[in-house]
Amino acid sequence: MGMRPIQVTFDEALLARLDRHPMVRERGRSAVLREAAADFLARKDAEEVDRRYEAGYGGSRSIDDELEGWSAEGVWPDP
Fold first, then answer.
1. pTM as predicted
2. Weakly modelled stretches of the chain, pLDDT under 50
3. How far apart are CA 25 and CA 22, in angstroms?
4. pLDDT at 45
5. What are the tens digits of pLDDT across the range 32-46?
6. What number of other Cβ atoms are within 10 A of residue 32's Cβ?
7. How many angstroms separate the CA atoms of 74 and 57, rounded?
8. For 52, which DSSP code?
9. Distance CA 11, CA 18 (A)
10. Burial 47-78, CB ≥16 within 10 A → b, else e
11. How many CA within 13 A on the CB side of residue 77?
12. Comparing C-alpha atoms, which of 26, 27, 37 is closest to residue 4?
């Protein structure tokens, strides 16, 4: 996988905070920003999975709501 340079604009205060962080000093700005972008995309992917799950299963219903009434349908053997 190749790297491609990009230009990103930060306000001076945010850039100063970023540059003071020990991880940025150790690994470099580009590495930290790549990690931040990957984390952002992973979080958005997870949010999309959650959104699809909620849409497919009726929103905010809990598993208890889904199973309500089924306990009387089965016959359980005596222990």
1. 0.65
2. none
3. 5
4. 95
5. 999 999 999 999 999
6. 16
7. 23
8. H
9. 11
10. eeeeeeeeeeeeeeeeeeeeeeeeeeeeeeee
11. 1
12. 37
